[in-house]
Specification:
The chain has about 500 residues and is α/β, with parallel strands linked by helices. It folds into three domains: about 60 residues, no CATH class; about 200 residues, Spore Coat Polysaccharide Biosynthesis Protein SpsA, Chain A; about 150 residues, no CATH class. It is built from 16 helices and 17 strands. Strands 7, 8, 9, 10, 11, 12, 13, 14 and 15 form a nine-stranded mixed sheet that branches. Strands 5-1-6 form a three-stranded antiparallel sheet, with helices on one face. A hairpin with a 4-residue loop joins strand 2 and strand 3. Helix 11 packs antiparallel against helix 12. It starts with 18 loop residues before the first strand and ends in a 20-residue tail after the last strand.
């Protein structure tokens, strides 16, 4: 296995005038002194100077060095997002589009037709059987005589980029108006190395089938409506390489050519580990031609799951399917056991967690209500994580348990239905609930099967093991030169 690196960086301050706003999932507790992200579990306690700068607002406009340091802290912890406004302006000319392709000339034509004409384009022909089909598009074409895979094709394209920024686009996407401009403005923050758009399916026609409608609502490439920082173990943990823009200077060795799956996740995580920021920008959109045949669809889901094992070899427990608070995990597992001792054990575990949270959340008069809020949120998040694990990554274990235990059968049945209904209400697909539930379960079964198949091939159970958080860690945060303290 080759060791890949990314260019290390010390993030500079956000530019003056930049506006940031607290993420939707962030709540302020203890009279505004504690910020808690209900999506990621990140918690910081602001010192008085930081509370004064933020005031009673959820927005902050960078106007001085202290405000810039606080903004950087909030952005780096994933607690805030930049706000750039609605104006898009002219298409950028300092971005080169790289398109890796093999035998998809018509799709490339469709994609190129959606790009601004002034944007440079490099097409990398990765061993097409008919190389002439790509030479009449009026764009630069670089050819591999034999196929070397998408990672190598992107790296070849990157080597031919003469601009400061590169946008990787797969041949089966189309770009909507203003997308490149919206992505490019994210790099006004000097800490940003990669930005990715929202990837939606092609518009549905009246003849669209069930899988097409499911993918329109629940594609693995669609990371949702909410912007955010991208990093391991956060709400948005990766960006698909089907469409992403990058600062060329930050990519260093580029994609890992030894990886045939999850090479995009690996790149993002290496860039983050080097100190850069990666952002998901759903205000920018591209359209993707999803696989909608049943066999191809299930195969693709399993293929995605198989990427967990090579990622684990490179990144350890950052790939863990669950990230659990030990005390809350004990509480939820005890209740799921459905024994006479379940409630007492759960109460002790939850009470211990509450005591830990209360001990670190500010003034004494605020500790009990704030600790109770944080514990309740963590318990709910833990319950949903375990529910998802039962139906996705660990479904073979759940199935075996259900064969031998009535209690396990109840837990599996409740998890399968409850998670499916909650997901249906969240995504609002153009499908009836029963059809959506069946397809969602098939999606999870195929993905989980891919995870297990990859683990067997790699002779490692690490892709299946949980990671554990440490709720006893303390921290406060203020706008200092090094704001690293305070994360949980």
């Amino acid at each position: 296995m080759s060791v890949m690196t990314a260019q290390a960086v010390r993030p500079g301050p956000p530019p003056l005038g930049m506006r940031v706003t607290l993420a939707e999932s962030v709540v302020r507790c203890a009279d505004g002194q504690v910020l808690f992200d209900t999506a990621s579990g990140v918690q910081i306690r602001l010192r008085p100077k930081a509370v004064q700068i933020l005031g009673d607002n959820r927005d902050l406009v960078v106007s001085d060095p202290a405000g810039a340091r606080l903004a950087r802290l909030l952005l780096d912890r994933g607690l805030a997002d930049p706000v750039w406004g609605d104006e898009t302006g002219a298409a950028p000319t300092d971005v080169t589009v790289v398109i890796p392709v093999r035998d998809r000339a018509e799709q490339v034509r469709r994609l190129v037709a959606t790009l601004p004409p002034q944007v440079p384009v490099v097409i990398v022909d990765d061993g097409s059987l008919d190389p002439q089909s790509l030479t009449n598009l009026g764009r630069t074409v670089v050819r591999h005589e034999t196929s070397r895979g998408p990672a190598a094709a992107r790296n070849t394209g990157l080597a031919h980029v003469a601009t400061d920024y590169v946008c990787f686009l797969d041949s089966d996407v189309t770009v909507e108006e203003g997308t490149l401009t919206r992505l490019r403005r994210e790099f006004l923050d000097p800490a940003v190395a990669i930005a990715g758009p929202r990837i939606l399916g092609l518009p549905l026609g009246p003849e669209a089938g069930r899988i097409a409608r499911y993918e329109a609502a629940r594609s693995s490439l669609d990371l949702g409506k909410r912007a955010g920082r991208v990093a391991p173990a956060t709400r948005v943990s990766y960006l698909p390489s089907a469409a992403l823009m990058a600062r060329v200077a930050a990519l260093d060795s580029g994609f890992d050519e030894d990886m045939q799956v999850a090479e995009d996740v690996d790149l993002v995580w290496r860039v983050v580990a080097a100190g850069w920021t990666v952002r998901y920008v759903p205000q920018s959109t591209v359209r993707h031609d999803h696989r909608v045949g049943a066999a191809a669809w299930l195969e693709r889901k399993a293929f995605y799951g198989s990427g967990a094992e090579p990622l684990t070899r490179r990144h350890g427990d950052l790939v863990a399917p669950l990230r659990l608070d030990p005390l809350c995990a004990v509480a939820v597992a005890a209740l799921a056991s459905q024994r006479r001792w379940s409630v007492p054990i759960a109460a002790v575990a939850a009470g211990s967690h509450l005591a830990l949270m209360a001990s670190r959340t500010g003034p004494p008069q605020q500790r009990l209500p704030t600790g109770s809020t944080l514990t309740a949120m963590t318990l709910v998040a833990t319950g949903w994580q375990l529910t998802s694990a039962i139906t996705r990554h660990h479904w073979p274990v759940a199935a075996l348990a259900a064969l031998t235990s009535r209690r396990a059968r109840r837990v599996v049945a409740v998890a399968a239905v409850a998670e499916g209904i909650a997901d249906y209400r969240r995504v609002r697909p153009e499908l009836d609930p029963a059809t959506y539930l069946l397809l969602h379960r098939a999606d999870d079964l195929a993905y989980g099967l891919g995870v297990w198949a990859g683990a067997v091939r790699g002779r490692s159970i690490r892709p299946l093991l949980p990671a554990w958080t440490r709720p006893w860690r303390r921290g406060t945060a203020q706008p200092t030169h090094d704001p690293a303290q305070g994360e949980n």
